[in-house]
Amino acid sequence: MQSKMKESDPILEVENLSASTDNLPILKGVTLTVYPGEIHAIMGRNGCGKSTLSKIIAGHPSYTITNGDIKYLGENINSLEPEERSQSGIFLGFQYPIEIPGVSNLEFLRVSTNARRKFLKKEELDIFDFEELVKEKLEIVKMDQAFLTRSVNQGFSGGEKKRNEILQMALLEPKIAILDETDSGLDIDALRIVASGIKRISNAQTGIILITHYQRLLDEIKPNYVHVMSDGQIIKTGESDLALELEKKGYEWTDNFIKET
Amino acid sequence: MGNENLVQDVVKEPYKYGFVTDIETEKIAKGLNEDIIRLISQKKEEPKYLLDFRLKAFKKWQKMEEPDWAGLGYKKIDYQDIIYYSAPKQKEKISSLDEVDPKLLETFDKLGIPLTEQKKLTNVAVDAVFDSVSIATTFREELAEHGVIFCSISEAVKNHADLIEKYLGTVVPASDNYFAALNSAVFSDGSFVYIPKGVACPMDLSSYFRINSGDSGQFERTLIIAEESSSVSYLEGCTAPMFDTNTLHAAVVELIALDDASIKYSTVQNWYAGDEEGVGGIFNFVTKRGKCLGKRSKISWSQVETGSAITWKYPSCLLLGEESVGEFYSVALTNNLQQADTGTKMIHIGPKTKSTIVSKGISAGNSKNSYRGLVKMGTKATGSRNYSQCDSMLIGDQASANTFPYIKSQQPNSEIEHEASTCRISEDQLFYLQSRGIEFEEAVSMMVSGFCRDVFNQLPMEFAAEADKLLALKLEGSVG
After folding, report:
1. What mean pLDDT is predicted for residues B68-91?
2. Is some CB atom of chain A closer than 8 A to the CB atom of B389?
């Protein structure tokens, strides 16, 4: 995709990926490569396949890969279970985080964190050590400890749910994070908290894919690349100024690209 | 979707207690008539009052009709085709555990209920019932030091006749219902507990019921009396071998709590449920009722119902004493073709009485799981309150869940609150947990135990772990 020489191996390679759900094609040949330290933004109209792409990378069972490959750290992961992908360091921040009644957030976070730690051959944390760790990470997203004793996402406001996602990202320390509209439904203050959280968690070894409709998140986290998706394909790739141009001209402007391709 | 099937697979856990103990048994002839009842009574060397109690109950039973209001689907039971007394052959008088047939001890060992002195559970006294008779009761001397009586009901009939005569059949009269009448006529054994005034029972008491023969019914009877300001926590567990015939289990449990007394009665029921096609399994038709006779007395039922082809039971509380409290916490899990119709009756008679009902039904496969409950406020129940919460969880799209709450109030100055909900384990919830590294099976069992949390919190500590394990067993596919 990019012509620049890269010093290290890519984290994620999506190669000519096509996928469908209930025999309905959603992705029609997506190619995307993410190297360590890179931030990619994917923009596009509702229904263009952005969320689907993120779910397929995370292993959602409702979608079938009809063509192409997803490679993570050089290995094909097409047939891995979602939990195996997560344990190995792929993180999906949900657009609509799911409520799980009766399951305490603290226990959920601990089981999840330990699943990742086990994969990394790190010692699993007991409840006391985990509480120490989680307190530290709560600070990143400015969440109150009270969130830990509640059921997973249950009764959380939109902003609280998104912060809980970033808390999970902080605990799991993924190699690649795909954040699906993490900015939607956030007010300006919450957006800043979330954005600064993402920046603190990411580093030169991690890759980030931001799926968004809006420039405002990209003002906070400057992407290296911006991709525009339409009808299951990436129709244009540029640098961060592409997002600004898109904001100015609207998605109608991108309709011309489709004709070009 | 693919995951739906996976969830189905996960709940298809084979039954682990399905073995049969090969032991010589003494069985009487099949069938039910006055002579059979006399024979049972004679075998148990019962006093005349008890034989009269049985015969009266039998006469009533003969005039009664088998109820069908629960809408449960099963082939009519042939009551003449059942053996009403079956006991492992052993020495006439057993003075110590060493004389118990090692095969029986081994059976209970295998069930995780070791009885021998060296291995017995350290903090729970156990009464082990095998088919129609009680095999052994542990910690009797230790309990006796506190004045606590814990023995089989057959022994109590002989040694504590005054208490039996005073209380037996006072909470569940023989004429109460069809199966209670049957039980009253033919009951063979069960547990008896007496906690004297002011005594907090120093350890949990437990009865373990094991059905071993395929053609005999089990009709046990439990009576617990808690005198003034006493308290006890009691648990029963149940398992049975796998037979392709249905076995009838019709038990009666009576609890009596006097002033300021408290009884906590917990059940983990795991009778054989039948196979995937619904062949075999136990018919669990049970009458359980507690009488809060005294002021500020409290009776709390907790149950985890996972087994039986059909479960039909409503552990209930009669709240007579002023400010008495009744509680019912229930988890009922059904799978394949199991049917469960369970709930409670909270009958508020005295003033300022309180009751709480928390029911969690989980239905998987093609099973039917219903909550049926009655909350009644009598004319004198001023200032009484009830809170009910009935939640259902559906796994797959073939199972059904129903809630039938009946409310009758003759007392305007009382409060009744009822909440109900139904949910389904959704693919999105499972994917969410999986995408956080949590294995599929663990995700299902996390959600199920999360759903049951309010009830598990009520179980005695040791048993909460057991219940969690039992549900996990039922829910995990790969348990070795």
Report:
1. 78
2. no
The secondary structure of A94-163 as a DSSP string is -SSPPPEEEEEHHHHHHHHHHHHHHHTTPPPP-HHHHHHHHHHHHHHTT--THHHHSEETTT--HHHHHH
Q: Is the pLDDT reported for residue B7 higher than 50? A: yes
Chain A interface, best mutation among B362, B435, B441, by max A CB count within 10 A: B435
pTM score: 0.80
CB distance B194 to B165 below 8 Å: no
Task: Judge whether B434 is closer than 8 Å to chain A, CB to CB.
Answer: yes
Contacts 24+ apart (CB under 8 A), B89-98: B89/B23, B89/B24, B89/B25, B89/B26, B97/B136
Read off the pLDDT of each residue in B58-74 and give the average, rounded to a whole number.
Answer: 85
Rounded distance between C-alpha atoms, residue B185 and residue A204, angstroms: 80
| Cα–Cα dist A36/A49, whole Å | 24
* In contact, B448 and B476? CB cutoff 8 Å: no
Give the count of alpha carbons within 13 A of B29, CB side only.
10
Question: Does B422 contact A at CB distance below 8 Å?
Answer: no
Query: Looking at residue A3, what is its pLDDT?
Result: 43
Kindly give the pairing relationship between strand A64-72 and strand A75-76. Answer: antiparallel
E strand or H helix that includes residue B156: helix B153-159
Question: Which band of pLDDT confidence, cut at 50, 70 and 90, is reported for residue B454?
Answer: confident
Stretch B110-118: mean pLDDT: 68
CA distance B251 to B264: 18
User: What percent of chain B has a predicted confidence (pLDDT) above 70?
Assistant: 84
HSE on the CB side for B458, CA within 13 Å? 26
The model's confidence at residue B227, banded by pLDDT at 50, 70 and 90, is very high
Nearest C-alpha neighbor of B367 from the set B329, B390, B403, B395: B395
> Closest Cα of chain B to A255: distance in Å?
33
Instruction: Give pLDDT tens digits for A119-138.
Output: 999 999 999 999 999 999 99
Looking at the partner chain, which of B2, B3, B437 has a beta carbon nearest the beta carbon of A116?
A: B437
Q: Are strands B252-257 and B281-292 parallel, antiparallel or unpaired?
A: parallel
- Record the tokens describing residue B155, joined without a space: 């022994």
pLDDT at B479: 22
Q: Which residue type is seen at B457?
A: N
Which residues make Cβ contacts (< 8 Å) with residue B149, sequence separation at least 6? B143, B156, B160, B192, B193, B194
- Of A92, A103, A104, which is closest to B435 when you measure between CB atoms? A92
Q: Is B453 on the interface with A (CB under 8 A)?
A: yes
Does B446 touch chain A if contact means CB atoms closer than 8 Å?
Answer: yes
- B439 and A83 in contact by Cβ < 8 A? yes
Give how far Cα A208 sits from Cα of A11, A169, A203, B12, Å: 10, 11, 10, 41
Provide the residue type at B93 as one letter: K
DSSP state for residue B80 in the 8-state scheme: G
HSE-CB for B436 with a 13 A CA cutoff: 29
CB B182 within 8 A of CB B63: no
The separation between the first and the last C-alpha atoms of chain A, rounded to the nearest angstrom, is: 16
Residue in chain B nearest A94 by alpha carbon? B432
State which amino acid sits at residue B204: D
- Per the CB < 8 Å rule, is B450 touching A87? no
The complex's ipTM works out to 0.94
pLDDT at residue B457 in the model: 80
Report how far apart, in Å, the C-alpha atoms of B65 and of each of B108, B178, B182 are: 37, 7, 11
Helix (H), strand (E) counts: chain A: 10, 12
Residue B419 forms contact with A (CB below 8 Å) = no
Q: What is the pLDDT of residues B362-411, one digit of tens each?
A: 888 888 889 999 999 999 999 999 999 999 988 877 888 889 999 999 99
* A166 Cα to chain B: minimum distance (Å): 12
Give the pLDDT score at A2: 47
At residue B350, the pLDDT reads: 96
